[in-house]
Design goal:
The protein is built from two helices and four strands. It is of the alpha+beta class. The chain has a domain of 61 residues: Alpha-Beta Plaits (2-Layer Sandwich). Bound molecules: iron/sulfur cluster (2 copies). Its cofactor is [4Fe-4S] cluster.
């Protein structure tokens, strides 16, 4: 049986539209890893930030935060569209798409 993303439902029978991860803004990401921890799939990967990649200036974050790492979308086809990564991100890095 072929999965149909347009006919997703909650257990209670309420129609539910997945929000699939589209991209992560490298200029905003501080490499905190929160999104990785909440993702139940192998979608995201933390990588070393290239020296040439600058971090967007922002004073509302702790200066001690790790900034040498960068979260990336490793396997977007494994995303189930739960949206948890975006909800936990303190920097609003994520963009999503719907089916
Ligand atoms: S939407 Fe869900 S499954 Fe997809 S990357 Fe985010 S946390 Fe993982
Ligand atoms: S939660 Fe946001 S800031 Fe933290 S690693 Fe993920 S994308 Fe980057």
């Amino acid at each position: 049986m072929t999965p149909n993303t347009l006919s997703a439902y909650t257990r209670g029978g309420t129609p539910w539209i997945p929000t699939y991860v589209e991209s992560i803004d490298p200029r905003r990401c501080i490499g905190c890893g929160r999104c990785f921890k909440v993702c139940s799939r192998a979608v995201l990967a933390l990588v070393e930030r290239e020296a040439s990649e600058s971090l967007e200036e922002d004073d509302d974050w702790d200066d001690d935060a790790e900034t040498t790492a960068l979260m990336t979308v490793r396997d977007p086809m494994d995303c189930i569209g739960c949206g948890a990564c975006g909800r936990t991100c303190p920097k609003g890095c994520f963009t999503f798409s719907t089916p």
